[in-house]
Amino acid sequence: MYNVKIKNYGNGQVQTRIYSHLIYTGDKEKPEKEELESNPFDDKPTKEVFDFDELEKEKERSLYTSMKRAKGKIYDYSRANVWDWFVTLTFAPDAVDRYNYTDCTRKLSVWLNNMRRDSETNFKYIVVPERHKDGAFHFHGLFAGCDSLGITYSGHCTKDGEKIYNIGRYKMGFTTATRVKKNEAVTKYITKYTTKDLMEHIKGKKKYWASRNLNLPVETTYSLEDVEKQSLHNELTMDDCLYYKSCMYNVGLTTHNVRYYEHVIS
Protein backbone atom coordinates (compact mmCIF):
# COMPACT_ATOMS: atom_id res chain seq x y z
CA MET A 1 0.00 0.00 0.00
CA TYR A 2 1.13 3.56 -0.65
CA ASN A 3 0.04 7.18 -0.53
CA VAL A 4 2.80 8.69 -2.68
CA LYS A 5 3.62 7.67 -6.26
CA ILE A 6 6.49 9.05 -8.35
CA LYS A 7 6.62 8.44 -12.12
CA ASN A 8 9.93 9.05 -13.90
CA TYR A 9 9.32 9.17 -17.65
CA GLY A 10 13.00 8.76 -18.51
CA ASN A 11 13.19 12.01 -20.46
CA GLY A 12 13.76 14.35 -17.54
CA GLN A 13 10.05 14.62 -16.75
CA VAL A 14 8.83 13.48 -13.32
CA GLN A 15 5.29 13.39 -11.97
CA THR A 16 4.58 13.04 -8.24
CA ARG A 17 1.19 12.21 -6.74
CA ILE A 18 0.33 12.61 -3.07
CA TYR A 19 -2.87 10.87 -1.94
CA SER A 20 -4.92 11.75 1.12
CA HIS A 21 -5.60 8.03 1.60
CA LEU A 22 -3.80 4.72 1.23
CA ILE A 23 -3.89 2.93 -2.12
CA TYR A 24 -3.89 -0.84 -1.69
CA THR A 25 -2.10 -3.13 -4.12
CA GLY A 26 -1.90 -6.90 -4.42
CA ASP A 27 -4.15 -9.10 -2.30
CA LYS A 28 -6.92 -7.37 -0.41
CA GLU A 29 -9.24 -8.62 2.26
CA LYS A 30 -12.05 -10.41 0.45
CA PRO A 31 -15.64 -9.59 1.38
CA GLU A 32 -17.95 -12.28 2.64
CA LYS A 33 -19.32 -14.41 -0.13
CA GLU A 34 -22.73 -13.24 -1.28
CA GLU A 35 -25.66 -15.60 -1.36
CA LEU A 36 -26.66 -16.35 -4.93
CA GLU A 37 -30.08 -17.13 -6.32
CA SER A 38 -30.82 -19.69 -9.02
CA ASN A 39 -31.42 -18.20 -12.47
CA PRO A 40 -34.88 -19.45 -13.60
CA PHE A 41 -33.73 -19.68 -17.23
CA ASP A 42 -30.61 -21.81 -16.90
CA ASP A 43 -30.44 -22.76 -13.17
CA LYS A 44 -27.01 -21.11 -12.87
CA PRO A 45 -26.27 -19.20 -9.63
CA THR A 46 -26.62 -15.45 -10.07
CA LYS A 47 -26.69 -12.38 -7.88
CA GLU A 48 -30.20 -11.21 -7.02
CA VAL A 49 -30.71 -7.51 -7.74
CA PHE A 50 -33.14 -5.48 -5.64
CA ASP A 51 -32.01 -1.95 -6.52
CA PHE A 52 -31.81 -1.27 -10.25
CA ASP A 53 -30.56 2.27 -9.65
CA GLU A 54 -27.61 0.81 -7.78
CA LEU A 55 -27.03 -1.64 -10.64
CA GLU A 56 -26.83 1.26 -13.11
CA LYS A 57 -24.45 3.08 -10.81
CA GLU A 58 -22.26 -0.01 -10.64
CA LYS A 59 -22.18 -0.19 -14.44
CA GLU A 60 -21.19 3.48 -14.56
CA ARG A 61 -18.40 2.89 -12.06
CA SER A 62 -17.13 -0.09 -14.02
CA LEU A 63 -17.19 1.92 -17.26
CA TYR A 64 -15.38 4.84 -15.64
CA THR A 65 -12.73 2.55 -14.14
CA SER A 66 -12.11 0.90 -17.51
CA MET A 67 -11.84 4.28 -19.23
CA LYS A 68 -9.50 5.68 -16.58
CA ARG A 69 -7.24 2.63 -16.77
CA ALA A 70 -7.02 2.80 -20.58
CA LYS A 71 -6.40 6.56 -20.64
CA GLY A 72 -3.69 6.21 -18.00
CA LYS A 73 -1.84 3.54 -19.96
CA ILE A 74 -2.14 5.45 -23.25
CA TYR A 75 -0.88 8.59 -21.53
CA ASP A 76 2.12 6.81 -19.99
CA TYR A 77 3.12 5.15 -23.26
CA SER A 78 2.74 8.42 -25.15
CA ARG A 79 4.65 10.55 -22.66
CA ALA A 80 7.56 8.16 -22.08
CA ASN A 81 8.50 8.00 -25.78
CA VAL A 82 9.56 10.47 -28.47
CA TRP A 83 7.33 10.59 -31.56
CA ASP A 84 7.81 11.63 -35.18
CA TRP A 85 4.28 11.50 -36.58
CA PHE A 86 0.65 11.92 -35.59
CA VAL A 87 -1.41 9.73 -37.94
CA THR A 88 -5.02 8.98 -38.81
CA LEU A 89 -5.99 5.64 -40.40
CA THR A 90 -9.42 5.15 -41.98
CA PHE A 91 -11.12 2.21 -43.69
CA ALA A 92 -12.59 2.14 -47.18
CA PRO A 93 -16.04 0.44 -47.37
CA ASP A 94 -14.83 -2.03 -50.00
CA ALA A 95 -11.82 -3.06 -47.89
CA VAL A 96 -13.15 -3.36 -44.33
CA ASP A 97 -16.52 -3.22 -42.60
CA ARG A 98 -15.75 -0.01 -40.73
CA TYR A 99 -18.85 -0.43 -38.53
CA ASN A 100 -17.57 -3.77 -37.25
CA TYR A 101 -14.99 -3.11 -34.54
CA THR A 102 -13.69 -6.68 -34.54
CA ASP A 103 -13.15 -6.61 -38.31
CA CYS A 104 -11.39 -3.24 -38.12
CA THR A 105 -9.09 -4.23 -35.29
CA ARG A 106 -8.21 -7.57 -36.83
CA LYS A 107 -7.08 -5.90 -40.07
CA LEU A 108 -5.31 -3.12 -38.19
CA SER A 109 -3.37 -5.59 -36.01
CA VAL A 110 -2.17 -7.53 -39.05
CA TRP A 111 -1.02 -4.33 -40.76
CA LEU A 112 0.83 -3.05 -37.68
CA ASN A 113 2.55 -6.41 -37.17
CA ASN A 114 3.63 -6.47 -40.82
CA MET A 115 5.03 -2.95 -40.62
CA ARG A 116 6.88 -3.79 -37.42
CA ARG A 117 8.33 -6.95 -38.99
CA ASP A 118 9.48 -5.12 -42.13
CA SER A 119 10.88 -2.10 -40.33
CA GLU A 120 14.60 -1.41 -40.42
CA THR A 121 14.34 1.63 -38.13
CA ASN A 122 12.82 0.26 -34.90
CA PHE A 123 9.21 1.17 -35.73
CA LYS A 124 7.26 2.28 -32.63
CA TYR A 125 3.56 3.00 -32.31
CA ILE A 126 0.63 3.67 -30.01
CA VAL A 127 -2.77 3.52 -31.75
CA VAL A 128 -6.25 4.27 -30.38
CA PRO A 129 -9.77 4.00 -31.87
CA GLU A 130 -12.33 6.73 -32.47
CA ARG A 131 -16.01 6.16 -33.24
CA HIS A 132 -17.89 8.44 -35.64
CA LYS A 133 -21.39 9.64 -34.82
CA ASP A 134 -22.66 7.27 -37.54
CA GLY A 135 -20.97 4.32 -35.78
CA ALA A 136 -17.97 3.90 -38.10
CA PHE A 137 -14.52 3.41 -36.61
CA HIS A 138 -11.17 4.88 -37.55
CA PHE A 139 -7.88 5.11 -35.68
CA HIS A 140 -5.34 7.69 -34.56
CA GLY A 141 -1.76 6.99 -33.61
CA LEU A 142 1.70 8.21 -32.78
CA PHE A 143 4.52 6.72 -34.87
CA ALA A 144 8.31 6.82 -34.65
CA GLY A 145 11.10 5.17 -36.63
CA CYS A 146 8.81 4.51 -39.59
CA ASP A 147 10.97 5.35 -42.62
CA SER A 148 9.89 2.10 -44.30
CA LEU A 149 6.17 3.02 -44.29
CA GLY A 150 6.38 5.05 -47.50
CA ILE A 151 5.32 8.37 -45.99
CA THR A 152 5.08 11.02 -48.73
CA TYR A 153 3.87 14.60 -48.95
CA SER A 154 0.25 14.78 -50.12
CA GLY A 155 0.54 18.26 -51.61
CA HIS A 156 -1.86 19.65 -49.00
CA CYS A 157 -1.45 21.55 -45.75
CA THR A 158 -3.47 22.08 -42.60
CA LYS A 159 -5.14 25.44 -41.95
CA ASP A 160 -2.07 26.27 -39.87
CA GLY A 161 0.22 25.62 -42.81
CA GLU A 162 1.59 22.26 -41.67
CA LYS A 163 2.31 19.77 -44.44
CA ILE A 164 -0.01 16.75 -44.59
CA TYR A 165 1.53 13.43 -45.58
CA ASN A 166 0.10 10.04 -46.60
CA ILE A 167 1.26 6.54 -45.63
CA GLY A 168 2.02 4.71 -48.87
CA ARG A 169 2.04 1.21 -47.40
CA TYR A 170 -1.44 1.53 -45.90
CA LYS A 171 -3.91 0.19 -48.50
CA MET A 172 -7.14 -0.22 -46.50
CA GLY A 173 -8.33 3.37 -46.73
CA PHE A 174 -7.29 7.00 -46.46
CA THR A 175 -4.43 8.18 -44.24
CA THR A 176 -2.98 11.45 -42.99
CA ALA A 177 0.26 12.08 -41.13
CA THR A 178 1.63 15.31 -39.67
CA ARG A 179 4.97 15.84 -38.00
CA VAL A 180 5.02 15.99 -34.21
CA LYS A 181 6.41 19.30 -32.97
CA LYS A 182 5.64 19.05 -29.26
CA ASN A 183 5.59 15.64 -27.62
CA GLU A 184 3.67 16.94 -24.61
CA ALA A 185 0.89 18.33 -26.81
CA VAL A 186 0.28 15.09 -28.75
CA THR A 187 0.40 13.09 -25.51
CA LYS A 188 -2.57 15.03 -24.17
CA TYR A 189 -4.30 15.06 -27.56
CA ILE A 190 -4.29 11.32 -28.20
CA THR A 191 -5.79 10.47 -24.80
CA LYS A 192 -8.91 12.55 -25.55
CA TYR A 193 -10.21 9.91 -27.97
CA THR A 194 -10.79 7.44 -25.13
CA THR A 195 -14.30 8.55 -24.15
CA LYS A 196 -17.22 7.11 -22.21
CA ASP A 197 -19.19 6.65 -25.44
CA LEU A 198 -16.33 4.70 -27.00
CA MET A 199 -15.98 2.50 -23.89
CA GLU A 200 -19.66 1.59 -24.08
CA HIS A 201 -19.27 0.37 -27.67
CA ILE A 202 -16.03 -1.59 -27.25
CA LYS A 203 -16.66 -3.08 -23.82
CA GLY A 204 -14.52 -6.16 -23.24
CA LYS A 205 -12.44 -5.47 -26.36
CA LYS A 206 -8.97 -4.10 -26.97
CA LYS A 207 -8.75 -0.35 -26.38
CA TYR A 208 -5.28 0.53 -27.71
CA TRP A 209 -2.34 -0.97 -29.60
CA ALA A 210 1.23 -0.39 -28.41
CA SER A 211 4.38 -1.87 -29.89
CA ARG A 212 6.46 -3.95 -27.50
CA ASN A 213 9.51 -1.72 -27.86
CA LEU A 214 7.90 1.27 -26.10
CA ASN A 215 9.23 2.73 -22.89
CA LEU A 216 7.08 3.05 -19.77
CA PRO A 217 7.73 5.35 -16.81
CA VAL A 218 9.57 3.94 -13.80
CA GLU A 219 7.19 4.02 -10.83
CA THR A 220 8.23 4.32 -7.18
CA THR A 221 5.75 4.27 -4.30
CA TYR A 222 5.96 5.20 -0.63
CA SER A 223 3.75 5.08 2.44
CA LEU A 224 4.34 8.29 4.39
CA GLU A 225 2.97 9.80 7.56
CA ASP A 226 0.91 13.00 7.25
CA VAL A 227 3.81 15.13 8.50
CA GLU A 228 6.10 13.59 5.89
CA LYS A 229 3.55 14.17 3.13
CA GLN A 230 3.24 17.83 4.08
CA SER A 231 7.01 18.17 4.10
CA LEU A 232 7.19 16.59 0.64
CA HIS A 233 4.44 18.93 -0.60
CA ASN A 234 6.38 21.95 0.66
CA GLU A 235 9.56 20.72 -1.00
CA LEU A 236 7.87 20.01 -4.33
CA THR A 237 6.04 23.32 -4.57
CA MET A 238 9.19 25.29 -3.79
CA ASP A 239 11.51 23.33 -6.09
CA ASP A 240 10.75 24.78 -9.56
CA CYS A 241 7.36 23.09 -9.80
CA LEU A 242 6.13 23.37 -13.40
CA TYR A 243 2.58 22.29 -12.65
CA TYR A 244 0.46 21.65 -9.58
CA LYS A 245 -3.14 20.48 -9.31
CA SER A 246 -5.27 19.33 -6.38
CA CYS A 247 -8.31 17.13 -7.14
CA MET A 248 -11.16 16.11 -4.84
CA TYR A 249 -13.42 13.13 -5.49
CA ASN A 250 -15.88 11.01 -3.55
CA VAL A 251 -15.85 7.27 -2.94
CA GLY A 252 -19.21 6.53 -1.37
CA LEU A 253 -19.55 9.01 1.48
CA THR A 254 -15.80 9.54 1.80
CA THR A 255 -14.01 12.47 0.16
CA HIS A 256 -10.49 11.84 -1.14
CA ASN A 257 -7.83 14.21 -2.41
CA VAL A 258 -4.98 13.71 -4.88
CA ARG A 259 -2.29 16.32 -5.49
CA TYR A 260 -0.25 16.27 -8.72
CA TYR A 261 3.19 17.85 -9.20
CA GLU A 262 5.26 18.10 -12.40
CA HIS A 263 9.03 18.66 -12.49
CA VAL A 264 11.89 18.47 -14.95
CA ILE A 265 15.16 17.02 -13.70
CA SER A 266 18.55 16.95 -15.37
From TrEMBL:
It comes from Blautia obeum. Residues 84-197 form the Replication-associated protein ORF2/G2P domain. InterPro entries: ORF2/G2P_dom. Pfam families: REP_ORF2-G2P. This is Replication-associated protein ORF2/G2P domain-containing protein.
